[in-house]
Structures are given as C-alpha cells and as structure tokens.
Amino acid sequence: MTTEKNAQEAFAGESQASRKYLAFSEKAAAEGFTTIATLYKAASEAETVHAKKLLKVLGAVGPTEKNLEGSIAGETHEYTVMYPGFIKEAEAEKKSEAVLAFTHAMKAEEIHAGLYKKALAAIKAGHDLGKEKIYLCPVCGNIEIGKAPDKCPVCGVFGKQFREITL
Question: Which GO-annotated molecular functions does the record name (predicted)?
C-alpha cells in the first residue's frame, strides 16, 4: 500500500470514528451518563483533529473555488447515482427505515449541491454569499439560507426545530 492509500484509508476511518463517537456521546448523555458523554465528545473531536491532518497530508483542501467544485461533484453523485441505487436495494429488501434515511439524505444532498452552486457563482463574481443566516434541519440534514421554513421541504419537521449554524 502507498502512503497516499494509507492516508485515504486512515481519513475514512478517523472521519467515521468522529461521527460514531459523537452519536455515542449523545446516547450516553440521553441515558444520564454525562461524564461518559463528555469523554465520547472529546474523542469525537480528537478524531476530527486526526482527519483534518490527513486531509492536509492528502492535499485535499484547496482554494474555496476548487473545494466548491469538488463538493458539487460529490453531492451530485450522491443524489443522482449513489442514493437512488441504495433506495432501490433497500426497497427490494423491505428495509423501510433505510429507505427513509436514504431518501432524506438524497433530497438534502440535492439541496446542498444547489447551495454550493450558488456559492461558486458568488465566488466567481468576486464575493461571498452575503450575511444571510444559515439553518440546519436536525432530522434530515436539509440546509436553508435566509430563514428557517415553516416546515422542512425534505422531511416535514417544523421550522422551529431548525438550528441556526454560526462560525
């Protein structure tokens, strides 16, 4: 194996561990184990540190314009190829929970691609998107710019559940 392949594999593992440990933290907190939840949250953030260093090793973070182009390609692949295939297989296996998760992700990824296209157009015009607020649906991962909707267009959750995302 080459160093690049090793770094790619390590990045995938560290990224997955980060998200998994964050989910474990939330579960431990819900069960009342606050110190264990904090430990898992710290481990999640540590894995993120590792993943970011590996992205640097891979030279995978470029100028914002190039990052947006890559993000558009990735999101587009997910909503046009990957998730439709996953949904078809899950339907054939009668796995309704997976069908719903894949469908929500697919629809949200299409919205993400559109937002990245809007951001790329702004960059090419020499400016940022503006000072609008950005909101995240905690159920399906939909992102809205400007204001939260009354209801999420992807999953139907009430807009008051959307979270404002700040730096």
Answer: metal ion binding; oxidoreductase activity
